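Anyone? Bumping this.
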Amino acid sequence: MAATIRIPTPLRKLTNEQETAEVESATVGAAIDELEGKFPGIKERLVGEDGEVRRFVNVYVNEEDIRFLKNQDTPLKDGDDVSIIPAIAGG
Amino acid sequence: MSKSAGFMRALKCRECGREYPLEATHVCEFDFGPLEVVYDYDKIKKSMTKAALAKRPETMWRFRELLPVAEEPTVGTRVGYTPLVKADRLAKWLGVREAWVKNDAVNYPTLSFKDRVVSVALSRAKELGFKTVACASTGNLANSVAANAASAGLDAIVFIPADLEEGKILNSLIYGARVVSIRGHYDEVNRLCAEIAGKYGWAFVNVNMRPYYAEGSKSMAYEVTEQLDWKLPQHTVVPMASGSLLTKIHKGYQELIQLGLAKDTKPTVHGAQATGCSPISVAYKQGMDFFKPVKPDTIAKSLAIGTPADGFYALKVMKETGGASDDVTDQEIREAMSALAECEGIFTETAGGVTVGVAKKLVASGKIPAEDSVVICITGNGLKTLDAVQGHVGKPAEIKPSLREFEQLIESDNKIKSK
């Protein structure tokens, strides 16, 4: 199984400008760890020292904010789309 | 920074302080914190004196040094300087000694405070060489981007939630903008736009142009203060959607203090939300420094942002200035819209009902002491949200063109007789 993670512009320097990445993990939290394995340094940009997703980062699974799902425990299945988006926009 | 940066110095992350060049970019690469424009205040101090200001035209651009454009503005040059109305009858209704209404319901050209932010964003977008401008909007912003882009000869693409008020949709279409209506609420529109903005070379006013755009809101604070004869208001009540307007009004006051244009009288800033979308006011009441996102359900559609970008900073400003936050129900919103209309002859949209309604609550709870003075920021026009009051403000008395029928009517009609 594989889900697709869309990498936001501010993080693409870490992914050699790669816009998406495929992950096999079963949850969002595990997918972030898997991403760290592929692109070292990316996890600390997304997750704070307290283990929570950073204040200015929003994560969506198939267009739904994970804070309305199970946060980092939100399950991932084959074909899911994960978007990582800077929270500062709009209004 | 080069000479062409005007009074701007750089973009700077509010969280970590890293600086970036003055381009179309809005978040820090390191911590995703918001980028803000920093200025050369020493240079501004020399140029923006009260004597210089006295000679300038009455638009928001009289405060041009504090607005982030490098050259003279080219879009929306007549925006702002809306009336600050002394509202004695409304003060009575609110139960407070003195009230003023900053009336952006008559802002030029599209009847909302958004013309302020858009004229800055589009002027800057032209400086940066963009030909196409875009936005994610709850309605007023789309109207303003569409209109100002039209007059500037720019192409506009505006994204709105599909369930917007008819008036707000037509008010974008008329200017020839491409209107994309998204089946979802504003937060979903916003998320999509954040993804789109990275992909196309457009100036998204509230995404990649946000550091410039948001600064336009400060002009409301400058105008209010100058209109009060350079005295900062004791209390300001501001509606909160993303929370950006509130933080920028506060910043505007602080800049005037820093430049020596106003005395630091510790102005208090309060935030108003609709109960059906109140992530910031709920966080305030629970003493939290961060909000929990919500799914909006309110007639105040222009404030229906469940994941407010500046919610964290709005909470901080209220805490630092001794301000408070509260929220009002749909019914209270309509009552407050009627109160403002009946007391002051000002017809505001639902967001204005939120602001007036919350002001009343804050006076009742003592958060705004009854002996104080308050400025209420009215940000939009009631003619755009007629649907919200339809069926709630009575009906005309309909008669035949007959003197007899009119006399019968006047006999039985208290509303006419009482005058």
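Late reply, but here is one note on the structure posted above: The interface with chain A takes residues 15, 26-34, 136, 184, 186-188, 190-191, 193-195, 197-198, 206-207, 210, 241-244, 290, 292-293, 295, 305, 307-310, 312 of chain B (CB under 8 Å).
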